Amino acid sequence: MTTLITNLGELMTQDHEHRVLRDAAVVVEGERIAWIGAASDAPAADESVDAGGRALLPGWVDSHTHLIFAGDRTAEFEARMAGEDYSAGGIAVTTGATRSTSDYDLTRLAMGRVVEAVSQGTTYVETKTGYGLDMEQEARSARIAAGVADEVTYLGAHLVPAGMDADDYTALVCGPMLDAVRPYVAWADVFCERGAFSEAQSRRVLQACRDAGLGLRVHGNQLGHGPGVQLAVEFGAASVDHVNYLAGEDTDALASSWSGWDPVAGTGRGTVATCLPACDLSTRQPLAPARQLLDAGVPVALASNCNPGTSNTSSMAFCVTTAVLQMHLSVHEAVRAATYGGALALGRESGNDVDGERAVGSIAVGHRADLHLLNAPSATHLAYRPGMPLTHAVWRAGVRVR
Ligand code: NIG
Fold it and tell me: Model pTM?
C-alpha cells in the first residue's frame, strides 16, 4: 500500500542535509518513507492526500517524560507560583499516589497521556519509572511503561524514600531492583542533584546499570551547579537532561564528547544536552542555555518532561515555541531539537537503526514514516501563532493516527 502526500507548502526534512523543500510531496510505503521530491515529479500511489499547501515535519520525538504516575500536585504548583522553590521532595507525594493505584488504572492513565501526546504530533516517546521507589513498584512501573511507550528508562534513583538510608537504597537500586526491572528497560537514569543522589551514589548507579547492559542518561544540573554533566560525559551517557546551570567546563566536556562524531555513519557520538523548557518555566528556573550549547557544537534535544511535579504538559509545540521566543533558537533549530535531537538522545537517529527498527526524527527515504502535518503553511507558524492548535494530521509508522 502506497500513500502520496502532495501539495506540501513546506517539507522540513531534518535529514543530514537539513533540507527544506517547497511545493513538495512524500510517498509512504507500508511503515516507511519511500520517496521525497517536488510535487510535480511525484510517482503514482494507491491513494493520495492533498495537503492543501500545509507544512510537513517529522513527528515530535519526546525523549524525556515521566508518564507512569497517579495523583495531582496542583497545590505544590500554586505554592511555587506564590514564590516557593521547587524541591525534589515532591516526588514522594506522587510515589504515594502511584503505589496505591491499581495496574489497570495506572495503565489507563499512562495510555491516556500517550494518546494526548500523539494527538499533538508526538510519534515516538520515551518514559521512565521513578514513582515506585521499591523493588516491586519499580518493576510494575517498568512493565506498564513497556506497554505504552517506545523506550523505557529505569529511574529507581529518583529519590531516596523517606526513612531509608541513602546508601542502602542505592545498593537496592544497583542490585535486586535493577534485576527486577531489567526485562522491561533499555535505559537507566539517575537524578544527580542536591536533595536526590550525590555524585558518589550516582556513580554507583551508572556503573551498575552500564554493567547490566543499559544505555545511560542523567538528570543533571537542574537546580544548581553540580557534577551531573561531567558524570554523564565520563560514563558516555546518551543524554544529560535539564542542564540549567552549566559552567564553562561542562559545555566544553559536552562539546568534546562529539569531536569524533560522524552523523552519516552514526559513529563516535557523544552526550546530547536535553533541554526541558516547560519544566524550566513551571519551576521558575533559568531557561537552559540551548543557544550557547548549539553555538559550542553540542547537539540539543527538546523534550516535554511530562510529569505531575515540574512539567504537567506533553506539548512539544509549546517547547518549540518557547525555544524560539525565549531561548533564541531559529525555528529550524528548535524543530530539529524536538525531532532529530530527540532521536539522537535515544540512539534512534539516522544512520543508527536499532534491532531492525527504522530511524525516527527525520524525513528521509527508508526512515519510519512518522509525520506531522501542520495546519499552517510553514513551521514558522509554531512560533508566530503561539499556543494555537496547529496539528492537522499525524502518521505513525505509516498509519494515520489523527
Ligand atoms: O525531571 N527532576 C527530577 N524529576 C522530574 C520531576 C519529578 C517530580 O517532581 O515529580 C523532572 O523534573
Answer: 0.97
